[in-house]
Write a structure and sequence with these properties.
This is Metal/formaldehyde-sensitive transcriptional repressor. One of its GO terms (molecular function) is DNA binding. It holds the Pfam family Trns_repr_metal. The chain has 90 residues and is an all-alpha fold. It contains three helices and no strands. It has one domain: Up-down Bundle (Methane Monooxygenase Hydroxylase, Chain G, domain 1), CATH 1.20.58.1000.
């Protein structure tokens, strides 16, 4: 992912925010907060992860799959994309 270097700081900032969200979930569980609060934090964290995934996936598609030739080590661009989508929905 050497091409992500230009977006490195943005990606790291996203990861740090997600890390903070996860730590807040942990604190809520330790403090025995209500289910509604924990569920809200979980869905917020999930949304942040989905947003990060979308950014990285879009960059991957634009950089490696659009107009790419078949890479015998990784298969066709179409097969790579299908594999990524399947792994996301597991």
């Amino acid at each position: 992912m050497s091409h992500t270097i230009r977006e490195k700081q943005k990606l790291l900032n996203r990861i740090r925010r997600i890390k903070g969200q996860i730590e807040a979930i942990e604190r809520s569980l330790e403090d025995e907060r209500g289910c509604n609060e924990v569920l809200q934090q979980l869905t917020s964290c999930r949304g942040a992860m989905n947003g990060l995934l979308a950014v990285v996936l879009e960059d991957h598609i634009r950089t490696h799959l659009v107009d790419a030739e078949t890479d015998h080590d990784h298969g066709s661009p179409t097969e790579q994309l299908i594999e990524i989508v399947h792994s996301y929905f597991k």
